[in-house]
Write a structure and sequence with these properties.
- Among the domains are: 226 residues, FAD/NAD(P)-binding domain (3-Layer(bba) Sandwich); 144 residues, Glutaredoxin (3-Layer(aba) Sandwich).
- Helix content is 32%, strand content 23%.
- It is built from 17 helices and 22 strands.
- β1, α1 and β2 form a beta-alpha-beta unit.
- α1 runs parallel beside α5 and α1 runs parallel beside α9.
- The structure holds flavin-adenine dinucleotide.
- Flavin-adenine dinucleotide (FAD) binds next to α1, β2, β8 and α9.
- The site of flavin-adenine dinucleotide (FAD) has 34 residues, from α1, β2, β8 and α9.
Length: 561
């Protein structure tokens, strides 16, 4: 067992996080950024080397930017200038069937500049997890219990008792925390012990993943100028993706109705390449695709996040990215409640906001898998004949129609809205109808507040800070918001627009942005009851606002950034 703190703390940790996968690490980073102490428990002492989660969405990069690690992740080891193109081929040495062009990690940030200060990137999990871990070590607010397993837990009205075992020594001990975030992955023992069921189709298909090293496959992919290839032929369907952008690759074979345990990895690589290669297998593992979401994300003081709460097909990169979104939503709410300005309804809004996003993303990934698995594969597809040529032309059209959607998801990455959230003030407006793959900036309550540049380096998103931020038209009187926030002890900063374009982008004279960068309320005039607006945004019931407003001294401003 190792700890990052010099001495063991005997008082309850504000938050315990079970699982130091990408989602547990994201929650620990969000809490560290907010100065909230936590204990992070994982049975592993070494990072998982098997590569997954390489497709990092723009919204996740925006969160990394808030924690100060976006550049470190972008330059963590994957070649920043390598275009992230996707090829569709019959085999790596076979025929071309189609192509999706995507900029490199560095170029994507430039291409995305008008809608985000960051862009989606490609970076395998073991590289970006190390950056997240380093950040936590620097923060010094996280106690890491590595090599420790959580055997059981009990919750009462005040907290959660955790029964932990050091796997190296067998030493069993207990820790207490006020809240437990279960980021314990697909087979979450926390979810099971809480009796929370998964809704949907569990284990729809079992597949084989092969982590391999091969200079020759690297050459073949460089010749195609691609980091990913969907291999489509009558024998089998597979997907090859870059790990380090050089010799390390991951090959996935979709076993469909077959049994992946009976597949020979060497033969699979040969079939994908179209000939024998120098490939050396690092590791093979069987994994399952799912379309499931937990029926509930919370029981009392225990919350589910990441794969513990939703499991999907790895098509479109929605797994880890959805989990990081969970972590951010839960993180600011825990912070608010622990600091005393979050209301009694705030934590319950976690499930209300995140579950619908999970349902949508799980369905989107399933749709991508369905599109991939229902391509009409002719037995002549790989043939050097007129018939083969005609079949490939037909396949190219089918790919163009059904498969490109998977790689143009910016509308989903940035455009999700917490519709119907109990802590957002719905204003009766209807979501703008964006064509597939397009993000339309808007400030509807629940939406991500849009990005604009204040100067070439500073985005609006950089100025939102750790509390609420009232973004407003220049010259408008906002003192009533300052007074109400002070009375309710809610941290609030303000940001006024500099240009007419920015005013237009924000659509209303006043837009209240939450600590996670989503819009809580908007209007053209000062609301009659500002305390009610703020109170609902932090999950307070009316009585809680009145009580605090009577007792708190009125301060003129709080937490301006
Ligand atoms: C082939 C493949 C490709 C993928 N590609 C992408 C992609 O490009 N983009 C994307 O967003 N997603 C992708 N995913 C999905 C992504 O890998 C997962 O969604 C993500 O890893 C889930 O993270 P997590 O932190 O929730 O869980 P995990 O990564 O599973 O972490 C859970 C942790 O909890 C620990 N743990 C569990 N129980 C206990 C216990 N009782 N005591 C102590 N420790 C415990 C485990 O040791 C583990 O470290 C892919 C998945 C696959 C299979």
């Amino acid at each position: 067992m190792s700890t990052t703190l010099n001495e063991r703390r005997l008082d309850p940790a504000p938050v315990a996080i079970l699982g130091a996968g990408p989602v547990g690490l994201a929650l620990a980073n969000e809490l560290a950024w907010r100065g909230v102490r936590c204990v992070l428990i994982d049975r592993r002492t070494e990072p998982l080397r098997f590569p997954t989660s390489e497709s990092i969405h723009a919204r996740t990069m925006e969160h990394f930017r808030r924690w100060g690690i976006a550049d470190a992740v972008r330059y963590a080891g994957f070649p920043p200038e390598l275009p992230r193109n996707v090829s569709f081929v019959t085999r790596l040495t076979g025929y071309d069937l189609g192509r999706v062009e995507r900029p490199s990690n560095r170029q994507q940030q430039i291409v995305s500049r008008s809608i985000s200060p960051e862009g989606a990137i490609w970076c395998p999990k073991f590289l970006f997890e190390e950056v997240m871990r380093r950040r936590l070590r620097d923060a010094g607010t996280v106690e890491i219990l590595a090599g420790c397993e959580l055997d059981a837990f009990e919750q009462d009205a005040e907290g959660v008792e955790l029964f932990v075992r050091d796997l190296a020594t067998g030493h069993a001990f207990s820790r207490r925390a006020l809240y437990l975030a279960a980021c314990d992955g697909a087979s979450s023992s926390t979810r099971k012990s809480l009796g929370i069921k998964l809704e949907g189709k569990f284990a729809e298909g079992r597949n084989l993943g092969i982590f391999l090293r091969s200079a020759e496959l690297g050459e073949m992919m460089r010749a195609r100028d691609s980091v990913m290839a969907d291999i489509i032929n009558p024998d089998f369907s597979a997907n090859l993706s870059a790990v380090d952008g050089d010799e390390l690759w991951r090959l996935i074979i979709f076993a469909r109705d077959g049994d992946p345990d009976t597949l020979d990895p060497e033969t699979c690589i040969q079939r994908a390449a179209g000939r024998k290669t120098d490939a050396v297998i690092v590791e093979s593992r069987v994994w399952a695709g799912h379309t499931v979401v937990a029926e509930s994300f919370q029981r009392g003081r225990v919350f589910l996040a990441g794969d513990a709460a939703h499991l999907l097909w790895p098509r479109g990169g929605f797994g880890m990215n959805t989990g990081v979104g969970d972590a951010v939503d839960l993180g600011w709410k825990l912070d608010a409640v622990l600091k005393g300005w979050g209301g009694s309804e705030l934590l319950a809004s976690y499930e209300a906001e995140r579950r619908p996003v999970a349902v949508r993303n799980v369905a989107e990934a399933a749709e991508n898998y369905r599109a991939e698995s229902s391509l009409p594969i002719s037995t002549h597809l790989d043939e050097n004949s007129t018939r083969g040529e005609a079949e490939r032309a037909r396949m190219s059209r089918a790919i163009l129609e059904t498969r490109t959607r998977e790689w143009s998801t910016i509308g989903l990455q940035l455009g999700y809205v917490y519709e119907g959230s109990p802590i957002c003030w719905a204003d009766g407006t209807v979501a703008p109808r964006a064509p597939d793959g397009v993000y339309l900036a808007n400030t509807r309550p629940g939406a991500r507040a849009p990005h604009a540049w204040l100067d070439p380096e500073t985005s609006y998103l950089d100025r939102f800070g750790r509390g609420f931020c009232l973004v407003h038209r220049r010259g408008i009187e906002v003192a009533a918001f300052d007074r109400a926030a002070a009375a309710l002890e809610i941290p609030l900063s303000t940001l006024d627009h500099e240009t007419i374009t920015q005013e237009a982008l924000y659509e209303r004279a006043l837009v209240l942005v939450r600590p996670d960068g989503h819009v809580a309320w908007r209007g053209n005039e000062m609301p009659e009851d500002v305390e009610a607006v703020l109170g609902k945004a932090v999950g307070r019931v009316r009585r809680e606002c009145e009580h605090l407003a009577r007792e708190a001294p009125v301060r003129s401003s709080l937490g301006r950034s």
